[in-house]
Amino acid sequence: MPYEPPERLNIADYFLDARVREGRGDRPALLSDEGTLSYGDVRVLANRFAGVLVGSGLEPEQRVLIALPDGPAYVGALFGTLKAGGVVVMVNPGLPAAEIQYFLEYTRARIVVAHRESAAAFRVAAAASRFVKRVLVSGEDLEAALAAAAPEWETFPAHRDDPAVWLFSGGTTGRPKAVVQTHRAFANTTDCYARQVIGYTERDITLSVPKLYFGYATGSNLLFPFAAGGTAALFPEAATPETLFRRIAQFRPTVLVNVPTMINRMVSHPDAARQDLSSLRVCTSAGEALPAELYHRWKDTFGVELLDGLGTAEMWHIFISNRPGAVRPGTLGTVVPGFEVRVKDDAGQDVAPGETGWLWVRGGSRAIAYWQQMEKTEKGFRGEWYVSGDLIRRDADGFIHLVDRKSNMIISGGENIYPAEVENVLMRHARVADAAVIGVPSERWGETVKAIVVRRDAAASEDELIAFCRDQLARYKCPTSVDFVDAIPRNPSGKILKTVLREPYWQGRDRRVS
Questions:
Q1: Does 11-186 carry CATH code 3.40.720.10?
Q2: Tens digits of per-residue pLDDT, 25-73?
Q3: Which residues pair with 394 in a beta bridge?
């Protein structure tokens, strides 16, 4: 039966207060360098945050912009905002000043919660904002205000369809657009994915490569373990292989929340074979498709199950996933219970198994809309369905393969070329550490294929890599040129910034995407 949440639902109660009512108040909820906080401790912290926010002028349905490093204060601010009836807006605390100004004006946030190390830029932007009432700074005035606040707070009786969190989509090209998500969505995906696919329990300890301001990590490294009475381990610094190996040794997690870029860096680390990842029962991957070759390298190196999956901000979190004990490498897995996925052509008709088409998905986690983006809302949200820009195909066994994003597709001489297919081939080459494929202008063909490669071995040559691709791909799909670089630009979640890569070659000219 589909999950049906109660009409009155505040996810601060669903994920936090309910654990205390169940008698789990003394169980560990958070692990960090600041020590261990129990569920009772986190509830009091969230209650104090709610009091401070309301005392600072927050009213129900107003936005609070949280720009904090991962740690207890982040969790307290998130749940405190929800308890006060506010709406959470999560952003990267390291944003440059111009982007901070954009987010404040776009979201009309009334209160900003920042950290002292990055507070100066937020204060400057807030001073120019028509909407911000107050900037609360962790490490300065915030702790004193929290200490003075009451430890009890009556959680706001939100409706299940009230906005709860704004997530952001489209950050690889242009300005991010806000996806307005409801309390219902977070409870629904927790039931469908966290409980029925990953099987979170109170014995689990989670650790994440992406930070909490990404919806993927908000779920997998906070809400999902909290729903089960488990424990989330948090650290503030950026993830590197060295940091992750150290934090895994420190916290001994059972669930690692990962992305393909970091999976590649971890297995390629010179000390990888000497690392002890035996505490892990599972590692998840999302953000980009996981090549089968990378799956096998991870499994051979660490002996840990690796589950690739696909989710979007518009459907909050993962709705296609491989299952523990039933992984098919190179695929996204199968549809998560409670969701329905169809593969359709341009006319909206279902395509046959094995054929490529557009991803249509429906389920109880669909967002309300894109904020101030009616045209894109009407295009993406069609009744119960969300229509993404993802091209997929479903095989005869029901496993779903991610072909590519519509915006990445290269059209060369009338042929459609999916960069992900070429990238997967390049990544199998022993001398390639990282690779991206883009279309560049061609007078003859319109576009032609270019590979951007980070070498693992300086001896790797353009001719060698092109020949390697021609052994495994149709000739029209193969790169006609290769550029070697020190690093491929990615956003903080690990997605390749294809627009950044293409810009020098297109020099401001419009690139048609059909």
A1: no
A2: 999 999 999 999 999 999 999 999 999 999 999 999 999 999 999 999 9
A3: 400
